[in-house]
Amino acid sequence: MSDSKSSGRFWLIIFILLAVFGGLFLLGYMPRHKQEKTRDAEAKQVTDANPTVTVAKAKAAPDTTTVTLPADTKSLRETFVFARANGFVKSWSADIGQKVRAGQVLAEVTTPELDQQVAQARANLGLAKTSYNRLAGVALPGAISKQELDVAKSQFSVQQAALQQLLAQQDFRRITAPFSGTVTQRNVEVGSLVSTSNAPGSQLFKIEQTEKLRAYVQVPQNFAPSIRSGMTADYLVPEFAGKPFEAKVVRNAGALDPNTRTLLTEVQVPNPRGELRPGSYAQVRFYLPRTAPGVIIPANALVPGGTESRVATVQDGKIHYQPIVTGRDFGNQLEVSQGLKGGELLVLNPAETLTEGQAVQTKAFTPPAKPAGPPPAKPRPNDPDAPRVSSPVK
């Protein structure tokens, strides 16, 4: 009997303890659960009613745009020197790197075949002269006809002309510089056989003027309207990092290449100290005035998809989709020629769920902090492997 009472009392105590702990749990958990549920509902209601979007202002485009393009560099004047008479090189007196003057002798050629032709022409001329003098000295009237005398005189004149032509060719035995400059190629040696051919590889010398260089640039169509003769530019070469050379646009082709849609433009660069070399890889940086005012926007403000370009703006706390006409693409920025005036709040990375007239909360865009660690390697100035870069001037 006592054992049964003890067992009942034990389970009663356990039941009372469970009831007490359960009540305490409910008293502590239920209000907290209700509070969290209410807070979640309020947060969901706020989120559903006024989502927060990140915005940035559209900026008016500057008046000037810079564009950097690769250039093909050549001397101001350059030419190959060929032989004008067949023969063998007797001597040469100018080597690569040497400065020469206009008319200076570069090499001399012996012309044995031409010399024989000159001797033959002299003999023919003497014979023609003798024949003409003999006929002209006949005093007997009617002994010779006037036609015979005219033929002899004509033959004498022909032989004179033939001799003069050969003598003029003998003057080409001395190969001279056509203008003052620097010898950049020499392809002759004493005893070399030369001919009057101008086939590739038959040139004897190459002369170049390097006091001023010409840089040829292919300007894309969208920048071509801004190219003007007389405008200044920067000439950039990797060997002189951070030291642009002043250049000037002197002319352009006046028409676009139909294959590349580019405008061939010539830029001249003074080179009085000979620091720059023809044939070097170079870039030309233009400072181009804008042909029409525009607006610059972040590239991620463009609404993805659709058949027309548009952006999502925030006006009076509500979403408004604005159609735009885009211009040049600067990578992380876009030029807008129509649709924006500047100063509009643009939604960055607009979500597809945003609808016209929807109320939103805005948050200004802040650039992300740079990650900790060593700084990234600086790019090489005027890197030949760098792509063409164009950007608005700030």
UniProtKB/TrEMBL annotation:
<protein>
    <submittedName>
        <fullName>RND family efflux transporter MFP subunit</fullName>
    </submittedName>
</protein>
<feature type="domain" description="CzcB-like barrel-sandwich hybrid">
    <location>
        <begin position="79"/>
        <end position="197"/>
    </location>
</feature>
<feature type="compositionally biased region" description="Pro residues">
    <location>
        <begin position="368"/>
        <end position="379"/>
    </location>
</feature>
<feature type="transmembrane region" description="Helical">
    <location>
        <begin position="12"/>
        <end position="30"/>
    </location>
</feature>
<dbReference type="Pfam" id="PF25973">
    <property type="entry name" value="BSH_CzcB"/>
</dbReference>
<comment type="similarity">
    <text>Belongs to the membrane fusion protein (MFP) (TC 8.A.1) family.</text>
</comment>
<dbReference type="InterPro" id="IPR058637">
    <property type="entry name" value="YknX-like_C"/>
</dbReference>
<feature type="domain" description="CusB-like beta-barrel">
    <location>
        <begin position="217"/>
        <end position="286"/>
    </location>
</feature>
<keyword id="KW-0472">Membrane</keyword>
<dbReference type="InterPro" id="IPR058792">
    <property type="entry name" value="Beta-barrel_RND_2"/>
</dbReference>
<feature type="domain" description="YknX-like C-terminal permuted SH3-like">
    <location>
        <begin position="296"/>
        <end position="361"/>
    </location>
</feature>
<feature type="region of interest" description="Disordered">
    <location>
        <begin position="357"/>
        <end position="394"/>
    </location>
</feature>
<dbReference type="Pfam" id="PF25954">
    <property type="entry name" value="Beta-barrel_RND_2"/>
</dbReference>
<keyword id="KW-1133">Transmembrane helix</keyword>
<dbReference type="InterPro" id="IPR006143">
    <property type="entry name" value="RND_pump_MFP"/>
</dbReference>
<keyword id="KW-0812">Transmembrane</keyword>
<dbReference type="InterPro" id="IPR058647">
    <property type="entry name" value="BSH_CzcB-like"/>
</dbReference>
<dbReference type="Pfam" id="PF25989">
    <property type="entry name" value="YknX_C"/>
</dbReference>
